[in-house]
Design brief:
Protein name: Thioredoxin
Strand order of the largest sheet: 1-3-2-4-5
InterPro entries: Thioredoxin-like_sf (IPR036249), Thioredoxin_CS (IPR017937), Thioredoxin_domain (IPR013766)
Radius of gyration: 20 Å
CATH architecture: 3-Layer(aba) Sandwich
CATH topology: Glutaredoxin
CATH superfamily: Glutaredoxin
Largest sheet: 5 strands, mixed
Strand content: 15-25%
Shape: globular
Number of domains: 1
Structural class: alpha/beta
Keywords: Disulfide bond
CATH class: Alpha Beta
Organism: Plakobranchus ocellatus
Oligomer: single chain
Distance between the termini: 74 Å
Number of strands: 5
Length: 135
C-alpha cells in the first residue's frame, strides 16, 4: 500500500519557516555627542537614557523591550548612548557597567538602573512618570 501525505501538513524542505516579525518602529534616538546629549535631556521633561555597546549581550537582549517602551510612552524621550562611540558622555555620567539606564526629570538625573531586567526598567519608568506629573 502506498502511504499518502496530505499536502497541507508538509512543506517543501526549501520553504522558510514563518517567524513572528519584530515590532516595527522605535522612538529611541541615538545620541552622537555629549553636546547633543545635554541639549536633549535639558529640553525634555522626562528622559530615559540607555548606555550600551555593540559587544554587550545583555544590551542587545533588552533592546527590543526598550523599543517597545518607547512606543508605549510618547511623553518620554528615549535616548541611546553607545559607550564606544560617545566616550565623553559615558565618562561624564560615570558609566562603568552595561547596560545602564539613567532617568532624568527636567534635565536632572533622578535614578539609575544597571542591568537588563526589563520589568524593573518598566516599573522604574512608571515611577519616574508619576513623580514628574505629581501623581
Amino acid at each position: 500500500m502506498e502511504e499518502r501525505v496530505t499536502p497541507e501538513l508538509t512543506a517543501p524542505e526549501s520553504s522558510p519557516r514563518e517567524v513572528p516579525s519584530p515590532q516595527k518602529g522605535t522612538r529611541v534616538k541615538l545620541v552622537n555627542s555629549h553636546t547633543e546629549f545635554m541639549r536633549l535631556i535639558q529640553q525634555n521633561s522626562i528622559a530615559m537614557v540607555k548606555f550600551h555597546a555593540k559587544w554587550c549581550g545583555p544590551c542587545k537582549s533588552v533592546a527590543p523591550e526598550v523599543d517597545k517602551m518607547s512606543l508605549e510612552n510618547p511623553d518620554v524621550t528615549f535616548l541611546s548612548v553607545d559607550v564606544d562611540l560617545n566616550t565623553e558622555t559615558a565618562d561624564e555620567c560615570d558609566i562603568d557597567m552595561l547596560p545602564t539606564f539613567l532617568f532624568y526629570i527636567g534635565g536632572k538625573r533622578v535614578e539609575q538602573i544597571i542591568g537588563s531586567a526589563s520589568q524593573v526598567i518598566r516599573e522604574k519608568l512608571s515611577s519616574i512618570k508619576r513623580i514628574a506629573t505629581g501623581f
